[in-house]
Design a protein that fits this description.
The chain is an alpha+beta fold. Strand 6 and strand 7 form a beta hairpin. It has two domains: 162 residues, no CATH class; 71 residues, no CATH class. The chain is built from ten helices and nine strands. Helix 3 runs antiparallel to helix 4, helix 3 crosses helix 8 and helix 8 crosses helix 10. Bound molecules: zinc ion (ZN). Zinc ion (ZN) binds next to loops.
């Protein structure tokens, strides 16, 4: 028995230039198909989980998801923006983030809100590739991609972690073979990346209400989005468990029921318990 029509939870991506290379895709609300329950959102969320989530929740105008190579080759900043945009569909686009005051002898928890609008505004400052003037020479630099991130992680696991110097040099597209960069050149490249790939080091200036200290924080946007999606995933699993026990419906059938009706069934189950 199918207790409800499938939920149409696709949101057109029009007006989301913050998604950069992924801006052409529509967003589907997370948690409306059974495959969503199989995405590993355990902390820390790695690039493979981000790719799985984007493959599940992005579709083009014909309902076709982006290919895996397309997702892996998208800049980390665009992938992060897309994941935050999907998480923002779960509520009003506001995320609660807990930071800690770094002042000695304070350590107060700083509870702040980050909104999708703020993240989107910062993300729109990104540019795919850009020129950097470094010590009199001009280089074209690109943003790191999901594939770069995966390759660097694999190297780190194999105890061959690339140095920060190696990572930056890899992003210079017209580097002469064998050319080593000076510290000043690398600093120029890094500063340009901060400007042109702003979501990767999304920063917040916070004043501690307890001690008045001002400090700069760089919360992980991926962790922030994953926390929302993980909570939603756990809530769905509880719904599936309760409704399957009570009515014998399948996972797919239960996820096809709108959230408000699932909540109503849950209330009936508890009322009759
Ligand atoms: Zn403080």
């Amino acid at each position: 028995m199918l207790p409800g029509a499938p939920v149409d939870a696709t949101v057109p991506s029009g007006g989301r230039p913050a998604l950069g290379r992924l801006a052409a895709f529509d967003l589907r609300q997370f948690g409306t198909v059974t495959d969503d329950l199989g995405i590993d959102l355990g902390a820390p969320v790695g690039p493979a989980a981000v790719t799985d989530l984007l493959a599940a929740c992005l579709t083009d105008g014909h309902g076709v998801p982006p290919s895996r190579p397309e997702l892996w080759s998208a800049p980390v900043g665009d992938r992060t923006a897309a994941m935050v945009a999907i998480a923002a569909l779960e509520g009003d686009g506001t995320f609660a983030v807990v930071l800690r005051c770094p002042a000695p002898e304070c350590g107060e928890d700083l509870e702040i809100e980050v909104t999708w609008d703020e993240v989107s505004a910062v993300a729109q400052r990104a540019s795919d590739s850009f020129d950097v003037d470094a010590a009199g020479a001009r280089y074209q630099v690109r943003r790191p991609t999901g594939a770069d991130q995966e390759r660097w992680l694999a190297a780190a696991v194999a105890s061959r972690a690339p140095s920060g110097r190696d990572l930056l040099a890899e992003l210079v597209q017209d580097r002469p073979p064998g050319r080593a960069f000076s510290d000043d050149e690398l600093a120029s490249i890094e500063a340009a990346l901060d400007d042109h790939d702003p979501l990767v080091c999304f920063g917040l200036d916070v004043v501690c209400p307890a001690c008045g200290a001002a400090s700069r924080h760089e919360p992980s946007l991926l962790a922030m989005a994953a926390a929302v999606l993980r909570t939603h995933q756990r809530r769905l699993l509880r719904d599936v468990d309760a409704l399957a026990r009570a009515y014998g419906w399948s996972e797919a059938a239960i996820l096809a029921i709108p959230a408000w009706r699932r909540a109503a069934y849950r209330d009936l189950i508890w009322a009759g318990a």
